Amino acid sequence: MTTATAPTPLSAPAEKQQSGWAVLRRGLALSPEFKQGIAVTLVLAAIATAGRIIVPLAVQQTIDNGLRGDGGTDLALVRWMVAGAALAVIATAICSYAMNVRIYHASERGLATLRVRAFRHVHDLSTLHQQTERRGSLVSRVTGDVDTITRFIQQGGLMVVISAGQLVVVTALMLAYSWQLTLLVWVCFAPLFFLLKAFQKRVAAAAVAVRVHAGRMLGAISEPVVGASVVRAHGIEERTAARIDEAIDGHRVAQTRAQTLIALTFPMGEVAVGVANAAVVIVGVLLGVDGQLTLGELVAFLFLVTLFVMPVQFGVEVLNEAQNALAGWRRVLEILDAEPDIADPGAAGADLPRGPVEVRFDNVGYAYPDGPRVLHGVDVTLAARSRVAVVGETGSGKTTFAKLLTRIVDPDEGRVLLDGIPLTGVRFASLRARVVMVPQDGFLFDASIRDNVRYGRPDADDAAIGTAFADLGLADWLAGLPLGLDTPVGQRGESLSAGERQLVALARAYVADPDLLVLDEATSAVDPATEVRIQRALDGLTRGRTAVFIAHRMSTAESADEVLVFDRGVLVERGPHRELVGAGGTYSRLHASWAAQQKPAAD
Amino acid sequence: MTDKDVLRRGMQVLGVAIREEPRIFAAAVGASALYGATTVASALILGQVTDRVIVPAFRDGETTTAAMVTTFAVVFGIALLKALGIVGRRLWAGVMQYRLQATYRRRVTRQYLRLPLAWHHRHPTGALLSNANADVEAAWFPIAPLPMATGVVVMLVLAAVSMLATDWALALVGFVIFPAIFFLNVAYQRRQGPLAMRAQELRADVSAIAHESFDGALVVKTLGRENEEAARFEAAARELADANIAVGRVRALFDPLLEALPSLGVLLVLLAGSIRISHGDLDPGELVQIAYLFTLLAFPVRAIGWLLGDMPRAIVGYDRVRSVLDAEGESSYGDAAAEKTGPAGLQARAVRFGYLDGADVLSDVTFDVEPGRTVAVVGPTGSGKSTLVSLLVRLVDPSSGAVLLDGTDLRDFRAGGVAAAAALVPQQAFLFDDSIRDNITLGLDVPDEDVRAALRIAQAEEFVDRLPDGIHTQVGERGTSLSGGQRQRIALARALVRRPRLLVMDDATSAVDPRVEAAILAGLRDGGTGPSTVVVVAYRKATIALADEVVFIEDGKVAGRGPHQELLESSLGYRRLVDAYERAARDREQNAAAAPADDLTEDEEVPA
């Protein structure tokens, strides 16, 4: 079936989707916990399944042998039989318990392992920071998708085996009583299976519609909360209310439609039981008149029919659930199968020696996957201990330069070397300790300021953190916070202003004590006086290190040893500010425009 | 809460639901009663069929066609009626639940629209969203099993009657087994409830960590903290696994027990029934009837347990929803209309403002803005500028003092009056999940030319035209398909298209490129949308230069007022703030002149 067509690792999208069985095999291999002790679990399951026919069997025995035995009622037999059956019921319950516990243990442990692996792997994929719109779907890989698999295994996977087993055992007992009636019961239930399957498709489609409407409704009800001030500022309460009503009603209608389908599907089993019972009675009586069936056997059939409904209904549901679970499993495996494009060379890699770093860009070019080329032939050496400002208009390639420098992405042309060692050959542990970037948005974790700063160096104590803020000239700001270092920053740091977030991010990078510091417009949202103060502090603090400033305001460029000017992906000028400013090139233009902003037009 | 309290409060919540939707509830309960009655009837009929058709046929070795047809019709007919009952029960239970959800979501969001912004500030966004969504859902969760549970009560009463009518000894077995099933199930729900809730919370934690960690991926990566993040995630994932296993253990224990009990009941019926038959007190048909009834009732009896199991969660959800609906504090409005035309005059009179739990953010802020003038509000980060701005357009009311528009206290305008005269462009632009055009008009009836004119002044026309559907392009939830600077420009166009008599901009171009910002400011100065009074929060000198006057705010107080040049001379704080760059440049030049070789000699590497 799947013969040796060696999968080419590069053409993942062209490759055919893995088949359901392949997914199952790979999935089980990745979570060995599932298979631990599976044999015992299956034996327990077999016993639990067999236990379901005890009651119909006891009914038949009582009626045929206990009540209508040749010597009238045989109470002793009934007593022994009931006692034996009761023991069997209890034994079945105990086996069910043991089986269930084993399933929960194995599946939960196995899936936790899978979840953690996938999570760790996602952090190695560059799509994470390149395609922000995909983040949500990456989150669902390690949450919702894994939950679907869990649900399937716990409520579906083994239950489908048990249900199938139940059908087999029940059918076997039926056959022992009468093959004609067995056939009849199967004929009554076979259409149910196909009918349910057909309906299930429509139910699934309706459920998708409900989810879509639920998403829309959530969006609408977030408007008066997240957009509270906009709604008031423009006095559009009524318009907003109308939008909300529309979304809420859409959701309700979709829910009702799905529920109608479910309500119609659900009692089909009852109808099938009704038909089967009626048919069994009639045919059974005819057979009994013929002497081919005993009274007890006929009554036992009526009990056995009720045991048919559950597995059929369940089987259909599980079939559908299995599709979802396999799809979820496939998505998680896709993550694990994706090659980390920015790979850690690990033990084979080199360590960067401590001390100031020299940076070399060796004819570097970069294009986003399936996107335009954003950097061309950058060939430049930044001397160790130099302070370099990188300037250019939005979209000129400044930020890409910073990302290449810190190996957030790898160039597709040329090489980046630190102290002569190609970046791709440097161990991550060494690289991340020596090279730190402060990104523009100053992302903070939902914790205290202290914990956020410690993120840069986990063993930093309060004194070290305090010193960091003081060194950056931010002691006053910190002292002004009522809770000081204990101040919670809220989700993504949103309890602080954009400028304050940048201050914390700066302190976080500072305690990490890197030898190469890269700041990507790290102070764009703070007021000018504070920015100048930070800038001055940084000038001192970056001595002895190499520092690269991606600059938004030209004041940063003025104080740098060297300025790199980018224009549409090309390094067009380099040199100190005082040389470039009068040269009449791109930098002169950028600087003049910025300077005009700073001066009152009236001057 | 004790169990009694839970039951009492839970019943109150159900009572509210029934009063809201009495008709649908009645229909659902009616259908469910039909289901309950037909369930008992189907066992009765099976007993009758056994006695009247099956046993005689087996005894006599013959039967009649009439008996066969009747049997089929009755057995099948009852099954159809029961199916009908189930359809009605499920359908109307769903309809009732969904209608209640919709009604309460509508009420909660109406309340969000009605309550003042100050109230919003006191409640975290996440909590408000879950009040309107998860809490409403939880509150009406028990509505799904409610009709079934009432139907089961009908079923149990009828079953008890039919058992008593059949045989007291077998009825006795029923009176032991069914209460046992009921209480076992209550115990089950009670054990499982808290565990399941905890698992749910942990699931949310795992999801929150994944969200946060992936959102902050760049920070994680640049600080090399992937393994620590994985460890943090693993701890949560393992804890969730353990919690799920705890839930699983309870299920593993109770599910087999609940299955075994009715089986044991049937066996007891067989034993007791055989004895009764041997004494001639019972016939086989009656034995079959009762045994069959046991198997039919075993499952539905659990519905009452589900209902009780959902109650604690429903009570918590309902209480949270109620606290939003009962929230006091409405902005009061007068009846003044903002009928005037032309630029508005604005006065702040001794305005003081403090959030509930903190010190004053603003105190004694007084200044005038003459009609048609432009005033810049300048101050360091965290000085209270944004708060001041939200007072000027009455997003919040001052704790004391007043803000006047054309001499009228903002609080005296009728609802919508201030919004009709003044427009605010906030720092963080919020866009609706709608087209660009609708985001600008917000329902206002304006021609495309006006929308384009506003976009042009906001320097947004060019990029909007490049979008696939131009001004009709959908921006996605909260405008995520646009960059921060683009969102700000759309928000600016939104304000401009309303031709406000007062335009208030709160650092509204901070994410815009300096050169683009310069063009925007030039457009505003040229009066592209007609004359208006402008208040602008700014850092950049070019922005400040637009202003006829500057209000300098420091620590929540007016630290200086006047034209830019005057302030530069009179206020040291102001000079420090706005001249920071120039001063830095000057200092550098002086240093460079004094010690040209400074940074080359200073940090020689220490030889190892």
Describe the oligomeric state of these chains in a short phrase.
heterodimer
Number of strands of chain A: 10
Q: CATH first level of the largest domain in chain B: which class?
A: Alpha Beta
CATH topology of the domain at 16-177 and 312-341 in chain A: ABC transporter transmembrane region fold
**Dominant shape of chain B:** elongated
Main β-sheet, spatial strand arrangement of chain B: 6-7-8-3-9-10
Give the CATH H-level superfamily of the domain at 16-177 and 312-341 in chain A: ABC transporter type 1, transmembrane domain
Outline the fold blueprint.
The complex is a heterodimer of chains A (603) and B (608).
Chain A: H1 20-30, H2 38-50, H3 54-67, H4 75-122, H5 127-130, H6 135-142, H7 144-177, H8 179-226, H9 228-233, H10 237-265, H11 268-289, H12 295-337, E1 359-367, E2 373-382, E3 387-391, H13 398-405, E4 413-418, E5 421-422, H14 428-434, E6 435-438, H15 449-454, H16 462-471, H17 475-479, H18 498-511, E7 516-520, H19 528-541, E8 546-550, H20 554-558, E9 562-567, E10 570-575, H21 577-580, H22 586-598
Helix pairs in contact in A: 1-12, 2-4, 2-7, 3-4, 3-12, 4-6, 4-7, 4-12, 6-7, 7-8, 7-12, 8-10, 8-11, 8-12, 11-12
Chain B: H1 3-20, H2 22-60, H3 65-114, H4 117-122, H5 125-139, H6 146-166, H7 168-215, H8 217-222, H9 226-278, H10 284-297, H11 302-325, E1 346-354, E2 360-369, E3 374-378, H12 385-392, E4 400-405, E5 408-409, H13 417-421, E6 422-425, H14 436-441, H15 448-457, H16 461-466, H17 484-496, E7 502-506, H18 514-525, E8 533-537, H19 541-545, E9 549-554, E10 557-562, H20 564-570, H21 572-578, H22 580-594, H23 598-601
Parallel strand pairs in B: 3-8, 3-9, 6-7, 7-8
Antiparallel strand pairs in B: 1-2, 1-4, 4-5, 9-10
Helix pairs in contact in B: 1-11, 2-3, 2-6, 2-10, 3-5, 5-11, 6-7, 6-10, 6-11, 7-9, 7-11, 9-10, 15-17
Brief description of this entry?
Chain A has 603 residues and is α/β, with parallel strands linked by helices. Chain A contains 22 helices and 10 strands. In chain A, a hairpin with a 2-residue loop joins strand 4 (413-418) and strand 5.
